[in-house]
Amino acid sequence: MRVGFGYDVHRLVPERRLVLGGVEIEYPLGLLGHSDADVLIHAIIDALLGASARGDIGRHFPPDDPRFRDISSLLLLEYTGSLVEEAGWRVVNIDATVVCERPRLKDHIPLMTVKISEKLNIPESYVNIKATTEEGMGITGGGRAISAYAVCLIEEAPVEV
After folding, report:
1. Which domains can be identified in the chain, with CATH numbers?
2. Rounded Cα gap, residues 55 and 137, in angstroms
3. pTM above 0.85, yes or no
4. Based on the number of CB atoms within 10 Å of its own CB, is 140 exposed (0-12), middle (13-18) or buried (19 or more)?
């Protein structure tokens, strides 16, 4: 078994969609980034890549590569899942936390869980997403950014005969 850890943060800016966990959320600000800037998916991708010793998100999806401009991070997650499988591993669980003051995410988390589990071909019960605030402190607490942390556990996939 192996454990992976991921972290991501992006600034909130006007005139961008807010996408978290593959879910578009109505909000006057969105996350600034080369792709859709989905910090939750990016943190999960880094956790999976770290656990499987496959580098990091920037190595596989460079921010200066035009192929990834405005791409859905769910597609990047799906590809990452295939890299983990090719390396002989399978996901046991993912636990992630989104840090933001607003918007409130409670009602969006069930759909995020579905989308992530579908892209990784794992049961929904293997994915746990939480949301918290920073009580008004720092860049996320001041409402200027959203960040996410993720850990995952992977195990060797059984060899099919």
Report:
1. 2-156 (3.30.1330.50)
2. 31
3. yes
4. buried
